[in-house]
Write a structure and sequence with these properties.
InterPro entries: DUF2752. This is Membrane protein. It holds the Pfam family DUF2752. The chain is an all-alpha fold. The chain is built from 6 helices and no strands. It has one domain. It is globular.
Length: 136
């Protein structure tokens, strides 16, 4: 539905809408269990095409585990996202508060290289290499 003539979509409207979408998504992931078959979420297109896990595969399961306080399972699902996303968020917040450009080219290249390396490592035979004291 188009806004009426004379109305403006402000940053506040966008922020409220984004917060509602994020809250709804987190509520769904927290209440439903992405570890079980039948979880209503589209499959990863990269994995569907190649059979390999992308850098984000396991991110929904990781989010579910974090929401339920199971940090060990979250690390197992996707340690790259578990560690990297909070670090990226803090780094972006600091740069934003300082009035700096959020994503310089060097940062984008670093993130891309890290994602490619993580994709290769997580698809190596025998991964994850979990020590026996962790698994029992």
């Amino acid at each position: 539905m188009a806004p009426r003539a004379g109305t403006r979509l402000t940053r506040g409207h966008v922020a409220v809408g984004a917060a509602a979408l994020v809250t709804g998504g987190l509520a769904y992931v927290g209440l439903a269990d992405p570890h079980r078959p039948g979880f209503l979420f589209p499959p990863c297109p990269f994995k569907a095409l190649t059979g390999l896990e992308c850098p984000g595969c396991g991110g929904i399961r990781m989010t579910h585990d974090v929401l339920h306080g199971d940090l060990a399972a979250a690390v197992t699902d996707n340690v790259f996202a578990f560690v990297g996303l909070p670090l990226l968020a803090v780094w972006l917040l600091v740069r934003w508060r300082r009035g700096q450009r959020l994503m310089p080219v060097a940062a984008m290249v670093t993130i891309a290289v890290a994602a490619i390396v993580w994709t290769v490592v997580r698809n190596l035979p025998g991964f994850p290499l979990v020590p026996t004291f962790v698994t029992g």
